Amino acid sequence: MNRRLTEQEREWLVLGLETLRTGEYFGGGNWVDLETNKAKELDQPLDPQPFLQQIDELRVVDKCPCGEARCHTVTFQNFEIGKSVAIVCSSTKDSRMLIIHINEDTGRLAELEIC
Ligand SMILES: [Zn+2]
Fold first, then answer.
1. CA-to-CA distance for 45 and 39, rounded, in angstroms?
2. Interval 29-83: pLDDT, tens
3. How far apart are the CA of 74 and the centre of ligand 1, in A?
4. Which terminus of the chain is less hemmed in, N or C, by CB atoms within 10 Å?
5. CA 96 to ligand 1 center in whole angstroms
């Protein structure tokens, strides 16, 4: 597999990356901490631009084989086994998990996890 992103994949990436700007990228402001029963604090706002700029050159090279109807997890050309680190852990408009990983060595977008 080696294809361009679909419109939907692009939309999910932008939706997720925009949470860097607001500090909601690890659930801050939305998720409730079960111990304190308070909304989790926002994280330090980050500039999403370096990641948004990569979207046009992304190629989808693999997809998750699990077969779950709600799973739409794909990996990009920058993916290397054991090098993924999550930079966004958010949700889609239809309440699926939306997790974005980069390659920790290169800082390039590596994986979009939707499930
Ligand atoms: Zn899957």
1. 17
2. 888 888 899 999 999 999 999 999 999 999 999 999 999 999 999 999 999 999 9
3. 9
4. N
5. 12
